[in-house]
Amino acid sequence: MNKIVAWRRRDKESGAHSGKRSKFTLQEKKAGLGLLFVTPWLLGFIFLFLVPLYQSFVYSLNKLTLGKGGFDTRYVGFQFYQELFTSHPTFNRTLVEAIMDIVISVPSITIFSLFVATLINQKFKGRVFARAIFFLPVLLAAPVLSLENSSQMTSIAASVTGGAEDGGFAFTSFELKRMLLESGVGSGIVSYITGSVDRIYEVISSSGVQILIFLAALQSISPSLYEAAKIEGTTGYEAFWKITFPMISPIMLTNVVYTVIDSYSRNQLSQMIKDTAFQSLNFSLSAAMAWVYFLIVSIILLATTTLISRKVFYYD
Amino acid sequence: MKIQAEARAAAWRAKRGLRTLSPLQRVKHWSWVMVRTVLIAGFCFVILYPLFFKLSVSFKDRLDVYDTTVLWIPKHFTLDTIRIAFEALNYPKTALNSLLIASVSTILQVISCALAAFAFARLRFKGSGVLFAGVIFTIIVPVQTLMVTTYLNYRYFDIFGLIEWITGEKGVNLLDSYWPFILQSITGMGIKSGLFIFIFRQFFRGIPVELEEASYIDGCSVLQSFTRIMLPNAIPAIVTVVLFSFVWQWNDNYYVSLFLTSTDVLSTKLPVMWASFSLNDPLYAYLVKNAGELLFIAPIIILYIFAQRYFVESVERSGLIG
């Protein structure tokens, strides 16, 4: 009762103010505020992103010379691009390696992270603990850390003491390779699988965010779908391929795109772009390299996106 | 008596949700549990191994390294390696620099990204769709493409030629200060800011519109509805973004080595600090390197231990998907 009285009183008060009602509707006000909220980002987008992006293209067409009070530019056209592909000693090879790295690691990271996500999505004892450990690589994926294994130490120790030691610990896939080959799997697939197993630490450490995204996707699938399927008599295996897989296919696309982007930070080419700019002080050549890289990565992204989005299933 | 016990057991089974399984099903179930446990334990081992390795190596004495009987637990326990790494890194000062940069840019980044994401999620205006496509575009373009111009921008920093007009010089040199970090995080252009805007937007979109509408009816302004309704509901997303933003800034050595030349931070000091030892004793340099890396990751691990509970919980509702 008291509440109603209070409400009425408030209504009256606001009625008193309604004489100087603002000219804008709520929608207009929201739109205005929206623009205001976006402003910091928009300023950054224009002045720290679009303009530099354009300028870096301009620099790649100009010869840049640093002077005392600034820098001068002289237009040379596509000379630097020509130099990259025809006379640069290592660019072509590094570029191909970077592309191969993307092509090789994207499938193994995507499949691995989906597998792990389904694994830790199940209920078992110590699940919280296991999850906490699985997300650890996201935090420790620093380029300055060398977290592979101790084989380096063994080799140093061997070189110091002069004796070949067989101690230490290394992941090897020799047995696996023999087993797969004997069971009649094609040698191309075998070498891919064993290659992924040998790089298991790299795969695990770069699939943290992907596991996170898949896990969130898995938990958003409505349990009623599984219940209905269970009543119809599906096995867990069928349920995975007929329910889980289609339902998370949109996220598969997100993850593939993220994995491609994430590979920027890992490859040799980024280092080369940086060294060209700040050790050889050839800013224009570095800008040209970066643009070639960017274009190639966009082509890869475009190709994978169109390829996958054809297969993607949207529930609603 | 016996019947009672059986009934009680059946009731207990029903409560636990266990159905009476046929032996074959039971074997299938338990073998899967076995496989799963082995797999999870195996992956955990692969992840934790390098950490344990560093921990073990850092406390080893020089004698233990050459001793093949010492595998994990050192015979001659020593803190010398860590102390040397601590001094070589100049730890208190460099760690403070790292901490300052990481925390300032985290705070600014969370604010700018949350505001922009709220606008993209709820405050639609003309062209907001196009601008959001711009956010995705910033995620896709490699940072290297902008590297040269970003460097020159901060080297000769100028706003529409204003500074040149006043002082007569070609811009001010903002390198070697914290300004580049502040500027790029306040404008949402820092490390993976696009991803953070994306996470926040997806999360805000998941909060029911009714909640927001109710707040307007109760007389909230848009800003109040944001701070009182949206933000408290978005704590999981905030925790995720804070953790990622801090850790990635702490780990980053790309921007840091681009902007800072004389200020030392951990991520630029770490790769070079052990080089001086490698001339006379490579193995010892390797120990020092590992001890230094342990010092580098220690703050992250401590932060993670505290944030881990919220973080892992938040994953369930982190709204990374739409």
Automatic annotation (TrEMBL), chain A:
Bilayer-spanning residue ranges: 31-54, 98-121, 128-145, 200-218, 239-261, 281-303
One GO process term, biological-process aspect: transmembrane transport
Membrane topology: Multi-pass membrane protein
Primary site of residence: membrane
Domain of life: Bacteria
Keywords assigned by UniProt, alphabetized: Cell membrane, Membrane, Sugar transport, Transmembrane, Transmembrane helix, Transport
Residue ranges occupied by any ABC transmembrane type-1 domain in the UniProt entry: 91-312
One GO cellular component, as annotated: plasma membrane
Full protein name: ABC-type sugar transport system, permease component
Subcellular localization, as worded in the UniProt entry: Cell membrane
Gene3D superfamilies listed in its UniProt record: MetI-like
CDD domains assigned: TM_PBP2
Automatic annotation (TrEMBL), chain B:
Primary localization class, coarse: membrane
Annotated TM spans: 33-53, 99-123, 130-152, 178-200, 231-250, 283-307
Segments forming domain ABC transmembrane type-1: 95-307
CDD domains xref list: TM_PBP2 (cd06261)
Pfam family, one: BPD_transp_1
Keyword annotations: Cell membrane, Membrane, Sugar transport, Transmembrane, Transmembrane helix, Transport
Gene Ontology terms: cellular component: plasma membrane
Subcellular location: Cell membrane
Membrane-protein topology: Multi-pass membrane protein
Gene Ontology annotations of biological process type: transmembrane transport
Family: Belongs to the binding-protein-dependent transport system permease family.
Protein name: Multiple sugar transport system permease protein
Native organism: Paenibacillus aquistagni
Taxonomic lineage of the native organism: Bacteria, Bacillati, Bacillota, Bacilli, Bacillales
